[in-house]
Every structure is written in C-alpha cells, then in structure tokens.
Amino acid sequence: MDNLLAVRIQNKVDSFSKGQKRIAAYIEEHYDKVAFMTASKLGATVGVSESTVVRFATQIGYAGYPQLQQAIQEMIRNKLTSFQRMEVTTERIGNSDVLDFVFNQDIDVIRRTMEETNHDSFYKAVDSIVASRKIYILAARSALALGTFLSYYLNLLFENVLLVQATSEGEIFEQMIRVDESDTVIGISFPRYSRKIAKAMNFAHDRGAKVIGITDSSLSPVAQASDCVLLARSEIASIVDSLCAPLSLINALIVATSLKKSEESKKIFQNLEDIWDAYGVYEKVDDSSN
C-alpha cells in the first residue's frame, strides 16, 4: 500500500473504533478492490455503516470518501496488470449493460476533467505552442493514438511539427538532438506510464525547451518533467484506460491554437480545400435525393 496512506492510517489507529479498525485492515489487505468500491459497499463488506466509512475517511485527513478512493485509485493504476484490470472491470460492471456502463463512465470522466482543468495552464500551453520554432510530440503505446491525432492537426497549422518515433531511447534522443529553448515539447502519457517518454521529457527540460505534459496526475513522471501540466482523467476499462477525456482536452488545445492563429488558419484551410477539391481527395456525396 502507498506509504502516505499507510502513515495516515497508522497515525490515527489508536483513535479508531472497532468498526474503523476493520475498515483499515480491509484497506491494507484489499486496497485494489477498495479503489472501486462505493462507501456503502465497503461498509457492507466489513460489517459497518456507510456513515462509519465516511467518518473513517475524514478522520485520516481526507475531505470525504471520494477523496480517499481517488487517492487509492491513483496509487494503484500504474501497478495493476492487464489481468487485474479485467478482474476489476468485471466486478465493477456486474450485471450492468456494458455499453451503458462505458458510456456513463466516459461522460463522468469528461465532466470531472472539465471541472478540474486549470485554465491558466491550458492557455499558457497554447501560447507556448504558437510561439515555438519547432514542436515535438512524444507519445507511446496506447497514448500514441493521441499523439498521432494531435500531430496531424498541428502539422496543418505549423511548418515544423515532429511526432517523435519512440521505438527506442537512442532513436528518441537522435530525433531530438537539436531541441532547445525556442522549441516546445508535448509529452503524453497515462498509466502505465512510459519510461522512455519521461526520460525524453527530462532531456528536453534540461535543454531549456518549454515542456508540456498531458497526463492524469501531478504525481506522474511526465508531470514532474513539465513546465506546464494539463491533467485529464482516465478510467480503467478492462485491459485499457478510457482516453476520451485526454482526447477532449487535446481537441480543445487544437481549437484554441487554431483560433490564436485565426487569419493564418483560415488561409491554410481554404488552400487545403482547394487542393482537396482539385485532386479529388475526398469522395463527394450526392444528397440530391433528400
């Protein structure tokens, strides 16, 4: 179990009631399950009331049970194996409809990300991107889809954008050999965090580049190396993490950047439309029957 949580419990253990001691013991032994239990379910599991669970959370220093649960979730997400993720998801879904469960989870994750996003950090990141000589994008594994999406649109807006191919640490550093204080590096990583991406972001930071981290926690290795951190929640969904909130955040980043370069963006996209039309890039849909 996380040392900070263990210390919080240990510091208060002498003041616990019998019921609270049962809660503490269960958390210490089964924190991977508690991370996704409601307060009422945890109470029923250990034989105490929901209000006892809530009092336990506040007694060890959290604002309430949701904050305790969030702390445990952040603690375990980078440690769970794919098999454990499937077990957690199966238990959480239970008899619910899978489609409805996933949709509702994604809606909740986007809502919480919107409520918690630091607007100053967001617009600081936009200004950094617009002012850059060159933009490097770092992403690996499942986050590579996010990096590719961001790279595609920034390449339409800027001349010098590089999606770094993260096949090996050596190749990453070779592609970033010229990075300096006039550049911006955007690193995207979610549990389980990529060691290669974290190392590359530290390299960029040491070279004086402006480093933007898109991740899920201020404790993530990506955040530690960043000048500007954009946090987006993700949730466990079987063997994968739901990345709808990070994608929504990246959408907002692209929109804000294009608006910052409004006149130039209009010219670029008008030129693109003319080229696409002249060379038949897209299939035209005949809607005359409607």
From TrEMBL:
Pfam families: HTH_6, SIS
GO biological process, alphabetically ordered: carbohydrate derivative metabolic process
SUPFAM superfamilies given in the database record: Homeodomain-like (SSF46689), SIS domain (SSF53697)
Domain HTH rpiR-type: 3-79
Entry superkingdom: Bacteria
UniProt keywords, alphabetically: DNA-binding, Transcription, Transcription regulation
Alphabetized Gene3D superfamilies for the sequence: Glucose-6-phosphate isomerase like protein, domain 1 (3.40.50.10490), Winged helix-like DNA-binding domain superfamily/Winged helix DNA-binding domain (1.10.10.10)
InterPro entries for the chain: Homeodomain-like_sf, HTH_RpiR, RpiR-like, RpiR-like_SIS, SIS_dom, SIS_dom_sf, WH-like_DNA-bd_sf
PANTHER family membership: GLUCOKINASE, RPIR-FAMILY TRANSCRIPTIONAL REGULATOR
Protein name: SIS domain protein
